[in-house]
Amino acid sequence: MSKVIVVGGGASGMLAAIGAAECGHSVTIYEKNEKLGKKIYITGKGRCNITNASEMDVLLKNVIRNNKFLYSAFYTYTNDSIVALINEMGVETKIERGNRIFPVSDKSSDVIMALSKRLKELGVDIKYNSIAKSVIVKETTAIGIELENGNKIYADNVIVATGGYSYQTTGSSGDGYRMAKEVGHNVTKIYPSLVPFNAKEEYIKELQGLSLKNVKAAFYCGDKELYSEFGEMLFTHFGVSGPIVLSASSYLTEKISNNENITMKIDLKPALSFEALDARVTKDFSSNINKDFRNSLNDLLPKKLIPVIINLAGIDEFKKVHDITREERHKLVLLLKCLEVTITSTRGFNEAIITRGGIEVKEINSSTMESKIIKHLFFTGEVLDLDALTGGYNLQIAYSTGYLAGISVY
């Protein structure tokens, strides 16, 4: 039996501790906060999207960077594994749209309670309000950690599960990156990911709170399309958010950070071609032929969007529908098929769900999560250069890499 230190008590750290303790090791978690799982608590808008019920190959396809690195971890500890654990600890789960798995209670605190219960069963010791400063290395072997207060804690294995740099209010302050660099690891440039965008247009503020479903958004740099997706989005006081925007950020944050000009083009009626939509608008106009233009779009658009579309179309809102020209109608239809939003920046790490970038995975043994540079030192979860789309995939990365590291200590 060896002594194992786990730095960080989030999803990955808890699973690392569970894995190691199940193998009979003596495990202590050092957590900088006053409780475990602070980031889990706010995931899924407080409901906790535990994982995704799709086949594991589908989960791997939803990992944006370095998904091949995760093959061993994902098949060692699967989505079924984490659901079984949570169920065994008394928390029932359910599957929702997109195969997302949530607790039946819709309370993320129940997920934390389940994991905490298992840690207690296994006798894992937890040190709260304990900030790890560095990993203690002798020659090329990790032998413990030094805390911020100067205390040195020695062990046979160290698992660093400190998280990334997103949601800093939960304690994610990039400590793991610094620790990794200090012992010789390379860390790629980090960016906020799964993050909303700021936008330039003034009309955005008028649309604050408006959610659009079944729209298509395409993102361009000049004439080159970089990403497109069909689904749901949200206008905010600063710009745009919602599922399709957050997914787009996984691909675009680097370009936005480098001040490349990104334009979002929203197709409000993606099910209709230009010609079909023109016919629909013509039909609506025929039914409202004697009305003012501003009163003719109620069946076509959400109420909050109508004044903005009228203004952008450049048609007098009091103009009678029967006086609207063919050219004006076509301009309106084109606008409905391509409402442009200029992206200026992301909302940054404080509003990012995850961090893109991290410790280079080529320096980590994918079969164990052990460092190839320092023996008995393991890295797991968001501190690694791994990130995925929304839908429970990022938490599965945390569980799988954490558990694999836990059962691999020696």
Keywords:
Helicase, Ruva Protein, domain 3; alpha+beta; 5-stranded parallel β-sheet; 12 helices; FAD/NAD(P)-binding domain
List the helices and strands and how they pair.
Elements (H helix, E strand, L loop, with lengths): L2 E5 L3 H12 L3 E5 L7 H5 L8 E2 L3 H6 L1 E3 L5 H6 L2 H10 L4 E4 L3 E4 L4 H14 L3 E3 L4 E7 L2 E7 L4 E3 L2 E4 L14 H8 L8 E3 L3 E3 L11 E11 L2 E12 L3 E3 L1 H15 L4 E6 L6 H14 L18 H8 L12 H12 L1 E8 L7 E3 L20 E3 L7 E2 L4 H16 L2
Parallel strand pairs: 1-2, 1-11, 2-7, 11-20
Antiparallel strand pairs: 3-6, 4-21, 5-6, 8-9, 9-10, 12-19, 13-16, 13-18, 14-15, 14-17, 15-16, 17-18
Helix pairs in contact: 1-6, 1-12, 5-6, 9-11, 10-11
Would you mind describing this structure in some detail?
Helix content is 31%, strand content 25%. The protein is an alpha+beta fold. The chain folds into two domains: 3-190 and 351-408, 3-Layer(bba) Sandwich (FAD/NAD(P)-binding domain); 196-347, Helicase, Ruva Protein, domain 3 (Orthogonal Bundle). The strands form six sheets. The chain has a six-stranded antiparallel beta barrel with strand order 13-16-15-14-17-18. A five-stranded parallel β-sheet has the order 7-2-1-11-20, covered by helices on one side. The chain is elongated and about 85 Å long.
